[in-house]
Amino acid sequence: MNRYQVQRIGFAALSLAALIVVVPILLVVASIVLRGAGAINWEFLGAMPRDGMKAGGIFPAIVGTLLLTLGTAAVSIPIGVGGAIYLSEYARDSRWTRAIRLAIVNLAGIPSIVYGLFGLGLFVLFLQFGTSLVAGSLTLAIMTLPVIISTAEEALRAVPTEFRTVSYSLGGTRWQGIRNIVLPQALPGIITGVILGLLRVVGETAPILFTVAAFYLPRLPHSPFDPTMALPYHLYVISTQVPGMPEHIQYGTALVLLAVVLSMNLVAAIIRSRFRQRRQW
Prior knowledge:
Elements: H1 3-36, H2 42-46, E1 49-50, E2 55-56, H3 59-90, H4 95-108, H5 112-126, H6 133-158, H7 161-169, H8 174-203, H9 206-211, H10 231-240, H11 247-278
């Protein structure tokens, strides 16, 4: 067997593996679209729920999901990117920094329900924020930080050292080099990490179950200290806790949640491509 035959076999195996991964995903998406498309209309998207969520719409759940995502982003992005800049550009390689990186990797693998219990104990009970958007956003931000820090640090480390050297040789300070040269070049990777973290937030149920989500709340939150409905928890409730719920409403809610996730992915892909076109290496 020559090397060309080995190459063909390798390509065939990779193609088969890709099909095994992609085809079930496409089948699941197609099933959700076919079963849930009938429920999608303006009332379903823009009305308040009625009759124990068997009628009306899911507008509070959509708004609550977006508010939780924005609150999580407002807390996690500055802290996560700042931590990545410190670890990549300022911290020396020592036992302390290696321990921090190991802790970050381990935190990324902790089940989400553990974060939910932590948020319940710290934010809801100890700090007395109650079941609120603040408690939910802070809990989700802590859960998101390991992903953002890890990916942002790798993106910063991938920027060639020559960029920093040129900045120093022109008389710039370390922070000026980071702000004006390194960060813009690392933005595609940083955006990828941020979107990955926020996509996990959009689909999580366990943390918001303990900290923010309401079972049935036919109104929008009036302050950061109010509870709210959210799409993942709403989908869980109508699928398991409400007897006689029409199937098309369940799949329609799943379709809306899927559309939110895919929209975030599309926006992230567009932003990444534009920044990659400006990259100079």
